[in-house]
Amino acid sequence: MLVLSLIAAASVALSATPRYADCVTLVDADLEIGRIAAQQWVNEGGGADARHCLAGADIKAGFPKLAAVRLEEIAERDDAGDDYMRAQVLNQAALAWLQADQPELAKAALGKAQKIVPDSGELQLTAAKIYGVEESWQDVIEAVTTAEKAKIVSAETFVLRGRGRYIFGAYERAADDVVAALSLEPTNIDALVLRGDLAQVGIKIDVYFAPPNR
């Protein structure tokens, strides 16, 4: 199974205020102090952006369930932003539920987001991750392909689609996904594992991608 990505607190900023930026920076620099500061900001009536910073701190502290609940609550607030922003926050909630091994709750949160922004390629990537956990490989393939058409891609979901194609015996198509994943992340472990699995069935990928720092 692919390791599900953590939600970065700054991945969707609810506001560009200096205090939000300072909160995120403090959480990254010192999680314990940053989480206390974020909670204090919430207690002071900091609003949606304060709660969003705190949700990011919850994720980093290893409390994805708490973060997921908080993110869903943020999406319902009047100060959560426009429809796009609400959908992004619900998408983050879905990823947090996945991190907490709650795929059904992840699917419910994602469904709310898709009702708000039905044509989002980014939401299709999250759907692919949920389908991957459920091992619904045809759905994985379709979701990643839809996202790719919208020019939204990630190494993680390329590997998911490649795994689905491998399971269905479409080895050359799976190899294409391995190459695509490694072109984005040359050290992606799951892509390298799938590359090895393909070699076992006679599909060798003789392409080397140097890590970015090289």
Automatic annotation (TrEMBL):
List the protein's name.
Tetratricopeptide repeat protein
Enumerate the UniProt keywords alphabetically: Signal
UniProt superkingdom: Bacteria
| Stretch forming the signal peptide | 1-21
Per the UniProt entry, what species is this protein from, by scientific name? Hyphococcus lacteus
Stored SUPFAM superfamilies: TPR-like (SSF48452)
* Species lineage: Bacteria, Pseudomonadati, Pseudomonadota, Alphaproteobacteria, Parvularculales
